[in-house]
Every structure is written in structure tokens, then in C-alpha cells.
Amino acid sequence: MGQKADIGLIGLAVMGQNLVLNMNDHGFTVGVFNRTTEKVTRFIEGEAKGRNIIGTYSLEELVASLKKPRMVMLMVKAGWPVDASIEALVPLLEPGDIIIDGGNSHFPDSTRRMKELAEKGILFVGAGVSGGEIGARFGPSIMPGGAEPAWPEIKPIFQAVAAKVADGTPCCDWLGPEGAGHFVKMVHNGIEYGDMQLICEAYDLMKTGLGMGNDEISAVFEDWNQGKLDSYLIEITADILHYRDEKGEFVVDNILDTAGQKGTGKWTAQAALDSGSPLTLIGEAVFARSLSTLKADRVEAAEHFDIETAAFAGDKAAFIQAIRDALYAAKIVSYAQGYMLLKAAGEEYGWQMPYGTIAMLWREGCIIRAAFLEKIKAAYDKNPELSNLLLDPYFKAEVQSALPGWRQVVSKAVNMGVAVPAMSSALAFFDGYRRERLPANLLQAQRDYFGAHTYERIDRPRGEVFHTNWTGEGGDVTASPYDA
Fold first, then answer.
1. pTM of the entire structure?
2. Which residue from 77, 140, 308, 336 has the least number of CB within 10 angstroms?
């Protein structure tokens, strides 16, 4: 074979094909393979025709087409297909070669794969890729982590094809060892769940609570997209709401109200539970999707609880502004919670997470891209040890400014009978986080009463534990302390 490819890619679904075309646009020759080889032929004779893209029809042919060190990127379904692809590739590779998993893999799998491949001298990278098919084609956000010696080899390609911020900085940088890259992608997707749910709640408040039409709501989102809420998801929401089909009907009104999910939001919530991080908003966003799937149950319940939504009374324009404030403040809480989980992972796994860099990786190319990510980067650039985003002066002032409207929206929603689980859980988190003293003292007393779980005292040093024989019959024996 004459010409050698700079990188190989396995998996010619829409994301894989678009990444290959993107790489080729930036001057890289790509070798491609797909388990269903007919896809290779269709791609080479179709979108890839006339380009420096090498079609191969076996893994042996793909590996033979690559420059050394060989770099092979997998764009296959997460789980066993990734393991099967790695197992088939390893006998064909040499120490120093690189396998890159660009799918939505669970971060513990990436950690395992890196360690297993290290024993064979193969470098493994778990790289989260966000932006959908358009991002893959013209510039995604890429979040790589794993075996760091692989970074100098893949960096020129990844940073060339990644989205760029205004000053040309690529939305791709090294995030750390093991599963760090896929962990960051997982948190990105969890925040995406939260953002989408918040937008849906704002839409429901205007449509159900205020009785507004789709065009009117669309205009509100278009207006919001010119200010602090400037983001991809706000932009596409405005487009969706005014889109009509060939009959002149709003498409969104004819879409069944059951939301799907692929699991990354659930993984984020599970990781939060495992680490003890209170990711309440993302958890509620996941549960909201689960509730939406109970369509038949909800139809039946609506017949049993035929409760009219209370009509809104007041200044409509002012309430729309309050909805905007509630959406923005809750969005800040969502990102603050996401960063709490990133910090917890960094401490648990020993990863040095570049928090400001992460914000810039999400600034363009990905689904949660938003203008205010620049403020997050500025916060962590100013104070890399910032314990919580809510304590940064900018975000502190923003939340305090939005708080009256936020409280008004949540209370009005309750009175109107419009569910706002994400907005309300974010407010509950904020009200708990800002409290010096919570009622957990009573909770701990209850635990000690029925289970002798002990407690600490406010007038004694942390770490000292005490037990009260509340009934006079429990004795002095206590349970062993542990954290679940």
C-alpha cells in the first residue's frame, strides 16, 4: 500500500463519517473500517469520493494502512462492542500504538481499559465527543483522558478538528488519566439533561400557566438568547417552537410527550450518589424523563384528578421576566452542582481536573455551549481553589439578583399546579447550601435513638462521637460508624 493514513477510524455511523470528513478537511488522511463492510463501500463511493480517505475491508487492512505509531479511533456503541473491537485490534498492534474510544462509554470502563491495555504496551484514550452530527462534521467539543503519552500524538488531529472559541482556542484539551475524559463527558451530559428540563419547565409555565401560543413563546426564547441565556439549547428551542409542517400545524404540538434517554444522565446521578455529591437538579431531570414515559398511567391519573390549572393573575410581562430569572439562577446551580461532582471525582481518583479549561471545552461545539461558560472559566482562572461556583463574586451577585423572581416562579407554579421539579429542587438546594445550620441535628438524633449510630456535638471538636441512651434501656453499646 502506498499512501499511509494519519489515523484510522472504526464505525461509520453518522458521527464516525462526519468526524472522518472533518479530519480530512483539515489535511489528515484517514483509514476507515466498518464491521458491515457495505458501509465502507457506500462511504468511499459517496461522501468520501475524491478525498484522502482510505477504505479498508478488514482490521488487518486498516492497521496496515496506518502510520506509526498507529492511532485507531473507535466510534462504536458503548459497552461490549468497544471491548470486542479492542480485543480484535490488540493482536494487530505494537507497543506504543494508540486506541481511542470516542463513544459515550462509562468512565469506569475507560479506567479499566487503560489499565488492561497498559499491560500490553498499548496506549488507551477515552475521549468524549459532543456536538452531534453537525459538531462532528464542523467542530465538536472533544474531552480526552487516559494514557498521557498518547496526547502529543493525537493532539494535532484533535485540536485541529475541534470547535474553536473566538480567540481560536480549540475546545479540546487533555483532562487527566484513566477515565477522566469520559467522566467530564458524563457530567456534560448530566448538565445537558438539567438544561433541557429547565427550558421545558419555562416553556410549560408560559404555555400552561400563562396560556401563551407557540409563536409568542418562541419570541420570548429568541429574546432571551440575546442576553445572559445565550446558548445553543435556547436558540434551537426558539426554532422548534415556531416550526410548522406542510399542513401549517406546529410540529412540537404533535410530538408525544414521552422523553427518551441513553443513560448518561443516569450515570451522572449514580456517580453523585456514590460520591455523596448533592446533584439534585440533574437527578430531578432524569426522574422527569422517567415520569414522562408513564404516559398511560398519567392519562388515567388525569381522569381521577381532574384539577384545573389555576389561572395566572398578575403582570404577565413581569412574570415572564421572573421565569427568565428562575431559569438562569437554576442553570447556575446546575453547573455549580456539576463542578461539585468534578471536584469530588478529582479527590477520589487523584485526577487534577483543569476546571477553567473544562468550561472552555464546553464553550463551543457541544450541546451545552453557552456564553456564560466564559464566566465559569474566569471564576476558576481567578481562584483555582474555588470551593463552589456559587461563592464566586459574579455568580453570587447573579443569583442574589435573580432570587426574588426565582422564588416567585416556584411558588406561583405550585399554586397553578404546574410541575417545576428542576427549578424547585435547585432552589431547595440553594436554600440548604446557604444555611449555616440545617435540621440534620434532629435526623442524627433519630439515627442515634433507633440505631445507636452516635453523633457529633457543636461544642466539641469534629471527629468526637457521642451516644445518648434515649430510653434508659439502650445501654452504651454503639454501632460502628461508616459512610455509605
1. 0.92
2. 308
